[in-house]
Amino acid sequence: MAKALHHRSPLVRVILGLLALAFTASLLTALGSASARAESPADLAARVQTATTPSAAPSGSASAESIGIWVRKLSDKSNVAGVKITITGPGGFSQVVTTDAKGLQTIGLPAAGTYKVLVDVSSIPAGDGKPLGLNPRQVQVDTDNQGVPAYFLLSTTAGGGSGGGTTPTPGSTGSSTSGSSSSSGGTSFADVVFPRVATGLIFGLLIALASIGVSLIYGTTGLNNFAHGELVTFGSLTGYVMAGILHVPGPIAIVSAFVLGGVFGWVQDLGLWKPLRRRGVALIPLMIVSIGLSLALRYIFQFIFGPDLLVTPSDSSSFLTLGPVHLRSTDVSSPIICIVVLLAVAYVLLRTRIGKATRAVADNRSLAAASGINVERVIRIVWIGGGALAGLSGALIGYYQPVSWQTGASILLLIFASVTLGGLGTAFGALVGSVVIGLLVDLSTIFIPSNMKLVAALLVMIVILLFRPQGILGRRDRIG
Amino acid sequence: MDFNFIPLAFGQLLEPQTIGYALAALGLTVHFGFTGLLNFGQAGFMAVGGYFFAITTVKFGWPLWAALLACIVGAVIFALILGIPTLRLRADYLSIVTIAAAEIIRYTVKTPDISPLTGGSDGINGSSDGFYALDPLPDISYGFGVLRYTNDGLWIRIVGWLVVILAALLVRQLMRSPWGRIVKGIREDEDAVRSLGKNVTWYKMQSLILGGIMGAIATVIVIIPTSLQPDNYGTQTTFFLYTIILLGGATTVLGPIVGSIIFWVVLQLTDGILTLLVTNHLLPITSIQQGPIRFILVGIALMLLVIFRPQGIFGNKREAHFSA
Fold first, then answer.
1. Where along the sequence do coiled-coil regions lie (chain B) (predicted)?
2. What is the DSSP string of A149-163?
3. Contact assessment for residue A431 and residue A208, using Cβ atoms and an 8 Å cutoff
4. CB contacts, 8 Å: B300 with chain A
């Protein structure tokens, strides 16, 4: 097999790889341009998300920050017009707006800060019910945040809060009414912590899928793959194209992101990394190549999909309520998928021949090769698996938050932090590290501004390197 | 058709951006080319230098010399914070920590809570007064054709290039000194240098500090005629710098400087040609799609350079340690 591959020069193989890349890109362009014509709920939501022109700017000046309000009925997702909404905020800011025919309204704000958004229950058309979740609701608007979502779903069957006009719905029962406990602004500690634990766990499991790929690729080839974030973005965008543009059902979109992600990983290995390994390129240049690849791919994605946020259509209503925690159906299914897949990965790594071979190569490549393991085959499978897991992670992230061309790039450092925390090159370390990082990122927002949450994760990584550079599950001799 | 972009592209030779990137790339060459440190956070050094300079000048009203000193001190502190945990570990740990630290700086300065000090996402304007006060040039317009500069504009360009030349001479002399031989030795074989009784970690730290200071001062040159924008110091800035030093030759003194000139002239030329083609409807893309193309080109150029010509234009293949 090795002989057959020597026939073609590395140059030819690299060019072939780039051609394959260009082909994939042009294929995606065709799909991307189709999106311009399709008018789907996702497009609508995306427009709400990125609304830049406040329709009712205070004191006539165009302001940078705005809140986007959307009122819909839970039962059939129809938009509710004519609902009065009061927004109050710092500096005595107070404004009353009414939702338009699509149930939408954008409010320009004078400055960043925390705003209170109150739905006037008496203005809701009869029979449409009451808003679910917190009402009034605190909305954190950071500098330059536009169209910060404040979406309300109305339901007639929301238990509990059907008494008086201003009685809070279940989400806040016991907090604002009794004013019993300690912390900030009449919200109890549990109300603050538990939703964050839930989102943190979900997010941790999502990055765990991607981290395992990084860790295995590092373990088997020694390459710190800075282009792994783009594998995640590839999955997100595949999911978006499938579910948002081609309107295939969610599960099929997720599976196709998984499969195409694997194909993408395989193509990358075949077209780029394998020829480079054959050339005997050292690890540091390989890392720089991965950076170049990351930069090129990221902007190819932007070229095709544009700079805006893309929303994968999903059911955003509350599916499961556990005390203060409201979960959408995707918030329940995503972690289940993650856990099942992670268990499957663990089974493959621990119980199957190829899994044992992978761990052997990660442990000592030369020894593994000497004992008859086909190292190239193992690396190829690791690339396919890593790409597939990253694609799956990306598609599920699409159901967790809006995605864009830089979704993967923005979580790449969290992935690295997880992998370093758990121990570079160990698959299970990556899993543990991811969950810790996911929790840390979301829980840190209790104490620090929300746009600093990534900083907390990165700082923890640096501190870990100071005191236990091999990570939680790593081995001392790897760090040399 | 408007062909003004051609002289404008060659005018990049004198742009503060080119000068600043040349200096920052020179600093990165000290790290990566000469010492073998995989610093992926040079943008962080640039941001730290820029913020220390701009905050002390604009918010505290310090004189120029004090602000420059603050900028250097900032870079030294940043180097110590990065170096202490990572320099004793393998190269890839330094790469991850530096890229993370650079992002930490960028996220932190954008935090609304401290925006009275850092200007948040808007950055800081007007750190130029102290520098322009020293301008001895008569207040007339200089240059020719489409390339015209005010006296202040020419002043920063002259001083900028002088700083780059001085820094290049300094690096050249350092690399010929015993100190330079030791850091190059660290690049080739760390254990061999250690066996000679040298404190390898400390030499790496010195190299990190030296290159970091160059990155910090580079930002001062860039922000004096423009303004300090946090998002200009994201990861892509570091990747641009890597492309620049690999273009010119990562183990040479002249490489990063010529690399920076070529990089910006070529980038500006391609931008100009693309604009020409797009506005005349010769290319089936929109002007929004035109923006990412330069980054795609840089990414591909970076890959091709590393794979096919790791020693760059001026480099010596034997010395390009990472060519395997």
1. none
2. EEEEEEES--SSTTS
3. yes
4. 18, 292, 296
A113: closest chain B residue by CA: B112
Which residue type occupies B179?
W
| Residue that is written with structure tokens 């806040």 in the block | A172
Picking from A455, A411, A342, the residue whose alpha carbon sits closest to that of residue B104 is A455
Cβ partners under 8 Å of residue A161, min gap 6: A130, A167, A168, A169, A170, A173
In angstroms, the CA A172 to CA A152 distance is 15
B168 confidence band (pLDDT: 50, 70, 90):
very high
> Does the structure show a pLDDT above 60 at A370?
yes
Domain residue spans of chain A: 2-34+194-478, 51-159
Please provide the DSSP assignment of A303-337 as one string: HHH-SS-B------SEEEEETTEEEEHHHHHHHHH
Closest CA–CA distance from residue A289 to any residue of chain B (Å) = 5
pLDDT per residue over B26-40, tens digit each?
999 999 999 989 899
Provide the token pair at A32.
Answer: 């991307």
In CATH terms, the fold of domain A51-159 is: Immunoglobulin-like (2.60.40)
d(CA A40, CA A46): 10
Q: Burial letters for A145-184: b for 16+ Cβ neighbours within 10 Å, e otherwise?
A: bbbbebbbbbbeebeebeeeeebbbbbbbbbbeeeeeeee
Q: What is the pTM of this model?
A: 0.74
Domain boundaries of chain B, sorted by first residue: 5-230
| DSSP 8-state code for residue A109 | E
Nearest to A143 among B38, B90, B112 (CB): B112
Q: How far apart are CA A37 and CA B258, in angstroms?
A: 47
Q: Pairing relation of β-strands A130-131 and A65-73? A: unpaired
Does the structural domain A2-34+194-478 have CATH classification 1.10.3470? yes
pLDDT at A199 over 90: no
Least-confidence region, from A83-87, B7-11, B263-267:
A83-87
B chain contacts of residue A143, beta-carbon cutoff 8 Å: 110, 112, 115, 120-122
Taking CA B207 as the corner, what is the angle to CA B206 and CA B210, rounded to the nearest 5 degrees?
85
